[in-house]
Amino acid sequence: ETGVTQTPRHLVMGMTNKKSLKCEQHLGHNAMYWYKQSAKKPLELMFVYNFKEQTENNSVPSRFSPECPNSSHLFLHLHTLQPEDSALYLCASSQGAQAEGNIQYFGAGTRLSVL
Amino acid sequence: DAKTTQPNSMESNEEEPVHLPCNHSTISGTDYIHWYRQLPSQGPEYVIHGLTSNVNNRMASLAIAEDRKSSTLILHRATLRDAAVYYCILRDYRDDKIIFGKGTRLHILP
Question: How far is CA B33 from CA A11, B5, B14, B52, B71, in A?
Fold first, then answer.
């Protein structure tokens, strides 16, 4: 148990569906992250939030829409996805750059399949 | 972003020490050296980090070259549970984000 919980663990959706991924951290951290991990590729950083403000958008297509209502919760809203978006989506949290080490704690991920 | 170079894969026998190398010749003075690992079907987990001096914790040791252009993660006594992908990452202390590379896939032989 890392203190970062992601739901659902598995998700299958059609290309016309709208769904959301949820991430919650119980660590009192200030920064939260979304990563995408496709088969046989390194983890790709998608978004970074610090104190609820988005500080990084790594050229992610607009069909992925993040939302950070508070420092403990992070959502990734999905709409009109493509089959190539099928991947493991990982959430992480950390104290933020000002913290020594700024260690990131990861959730177990949501395995997404787009049909 | 400063980059790291790691072997794609390594093998080691159970209960023996493992030395995982990492080259980072373009490291800057503001970069910390971080190691994470990812076990099968899990998210990455933090292992250890350092700046200039060698570091030890309950999971591993980190040996950093004097010129900081390379480092080695040392698992003192590998178990089957240590089979994972190990990532060596440089993180600028001023930055929130970390960038993952391909890492080293470590196989442990019983």
Answer: 35, 13, 26, 9, 8
